[in-house]
Model the fold of this input.
Amino acid sequence: MNGISEILSFSFLAIGPTLALVFTTLVLLFCTITISTPVYIKKYISFFGILITLFTIFLKFGLFAREGVNSYFSEKILVDEFSLVGNVLIGLILLLTFNSFWKTSEEIDNKTTEALILVLMSASGFLLMVDAENFIMLFIGLEIGSISLYALAGLNRGDQLSNEASLKYFLLGSLASCIFIYGVALIYVSLSISGVYETSIAINFIGPNNIPLTTLIGLIMIIVGLLFKVAAAPFQAWAPDVYQGSPTGYVGYMAAVAKASSFIVLARLSAISLRFIIDKFDLFFTAVVILSVLAGALFATNQTDIKRLIAYSGVIQSGFILSGISFGVYGISASIFYLITYIIQLIGVFTVFSIISGQLSSDFKISNLSGLFKENKFLTIAFSVFMLGIAGLPLTSGFVSKFILITNLWSYEKYLIVTVLMLTTVAGFYFYLRPIWVAAIEKSDNAIEKIKISISDKVLLGFMAALTIYFGLLPNTLVNITRWMVENYL
Amino acid sequence: MNAIIISLLFVPLICSFLIFIIPNSRKEIFRPIGIIFSLITLTQCFYLLFSDFGKTKFVILSNYQWIQSYGLEISLGISGMSTLLLLLTSLLVFVSLLSIGSEHAESKGFIGSLLALHFAVNGVFISGDLISLFIFFEALLIPMYFLMGIWGGENRRYATIKFILYTVFGSVFIFIGTVYTAVISYGTNRALALDFDTLANLEFSSSQSRTLFLLFTFGFLIKVPLFPLHTWLPDAHVEAPTAGSILLAGVLLKVGAYGILRVSIPFFTEGFITYKNLIAVLSVIGIIYGAIVAIAQIDIKKLIAYSSVSHMGYVMLGISAGGYLSIEGAIIQMINHGITSGALFMLVGFLYERRHTRNISSFGGIKITMPKYAAIFLFTSFASIGLPGLNGFVGEFMILMGSYDHYKVLTSIAAFGVVLAAIYMLWAYQRIFTGPISNDKNENLKDLNIRETLSIAPLMLLMLFIGIYPSFIESFVIQEAGFLSETIALFKDVN
Done:
């Protein structure tokens, strides 16, 4: 028995976080169908599950320190810097959004447990996705994660927008999954491999100039499947509708977790699988980056719904992050920095929205923000910090991430992309400042309703706003972490 | 010394936080707290002025690791020009805190934003590397956005967005310039060292120098503003509240010229020599254009705004001439314009608080009801026009004299700006103050009270002091102007 497990390199620790989350969902399920459990106990169970997940992530660092970069389960699961950072990121997202998604789930009648299970299951899927070395494994993780997200989007059955969001997300998402799995199949057909490392070895073996066209197409299809998840143009069409329609309390989690894990996987693909042929994808990535930032900026300008605005801004940010990922290793470290800081701001913004407009609400007009400053100064300040962070104003982390990213791009001599990105930043100030104007400055007659904000929300928002400013003033630690991530892949 | 430099940043910031923390029930102490803290900064600036660094060219005093793996450092330093501008800033913050009416003085947001602005401006003037310069340059926008947005006039939304977008558009060029410089610096030093000492030793090829000069200078010129880029200024001034206008005209415009003197000229001298004629022509157009447009204004604030375009044109002319005298004159003119235009905006603010209009046509003959105000306004107008014996004359005279060697025709044209200044200022004075009282509402206007007189008095004293004893202020900029003109002259000799 011992021998076999060693050959297969069996290690439950390597998928510990995923297992912990799945186990939590099983306990929750058990509590629902056998004994009638009070709701607050379920809350503690799921919170405890998340804590255990974080602990197993911590243990994984021990595994990494002992074994180094290593694959497990006969090269299905990989423990490397990317998976560790991805795990931490997803754990952090769960922790930061716990308050929102818990309250949202509580508000949905009779479906509290289902909602919680969906959230935790999707997180487990995405954890598996960032851990996967094999493309099939990656696909399984992606699907477990995504399908839960499709359901989450439509959980508020009484709301038409929510149904629409769910259906759109499901149909387009399945199409993207098809493209992804077709790409995997093409690679397998041409090279008889389906792994992240195997691809790079095979490409090195045949030589970058002799790669079959099918492999290239397959790789592009895999990338397209992932780009869909991060809503980079021209695969962004679902994002605004889904963000607008889904219950506000979930959107922060949905957006953050899909973006984080997909970008981590994209970064790993770029650093490992494509390392010898990254220049062949230059044109493709350049086109996607430029399209994303331009389309995002154009559409964001005249949005009246703020969730759609943030969705289009997400398209722009995807373009920014992708620009670093696609051009070399230091760019990847800059992109991961950008990703981490952006995700904190994104979650912060949606937490603010869910507090103002209610967890289950779908559309949220910019004009609904008016009078916010009078009603709640803390929320306004936190909201302004997040928006200015996304806009990239100095003293916030948004500026540092943009600076590092642009410096890297410039040193790779990507002048066209730098120009487009900077112009978008200027345009961004137009539409990022508008909600702040409405929330903080404009005097309006129809004052906002009384806002109740719990202490835990206050602490969370304060923490995220503080992080946004902290990384803007003293980014050294986080930059070092992201540099450590990529050091072995130079 | 180090501690004083850093505290220039932290004293206004702490004060700003303090005011945000104090509950609204104690609104009467907002203003005193702000005044006390700005006096602390003022004292620090005086200490700096008479320290070893009050007369030197830029000296970096402290370094802090910012991003280790990129070799990025934050450096802080000081020079003669910076010290003067810091002094001007804290003086203007002090007097504007004193001058604002109770409506603004009892709002914690207003005073807090004012001090946050003070923090950012101080940051610009003491930053010793491109990164911190850029950070503070952009950070200016946040308090200015709220000052104009919340307490501005009718059309404030348009003006604020225009102001922000113009500045951000300009700063994008500075940003790209910074990135480009960083990459060049990385090639030599293996680190993204951007402090001014490193940059001074860095070799730029001539095309790099030209590109970088254009990038940085374009960004700074929007802030100055130079002629075709000035259109945000009148809108911003008209809509900004009085204290915002004082600081906008008095300090924020100087940030642009300061950036050119601090970054564009010493590091990218070749680019400067290539493009200085263009800048000179544009600044002369700005001088004449601003003055002519000012004549036609019916809004007093807009008139002073256009006069700022004209006066800042002199500064740019002096800078682009590049001689010792002209650069010295430009620096002195920066200080002088800060004092006079700040005073003019404050005076207009007093009038606006009483009548809630700024239309010249709704006044007339108010000399009878407000004699003290009329006298002060005339005095300040004379300083703005450049009457010998007052401060405006010193800077403009030095600029015109210094530039004449380099641009004979342009300087001759620019000299007419002084005549035009006399036309628009004195004509406006005539329409507002002289003759019989044409409007019934003006019959019961109250003259300036003690607080208002006290807040304008320091500025008037300075106008007179600089006017009759200019060598005092000159002594602080001699080294800096000498260094800059030598850099330019040296470069001309080499080529």
About this structure: The longest helix of chain B spans residues 156-189. Chain B is about 75% helix and 5% strand. Residues 185 and 192 of chain B are 6 Å apart (CA to CA). The interface with chain A takes residues 65-70, 131, 134-136, 138-139, 141-142, 145-146, 149-150, 157, 160-161, 164-165, 168-169, 172, 175-176, 178-180, 182-183, 186, 192 of chain B (CB under 8 Å).
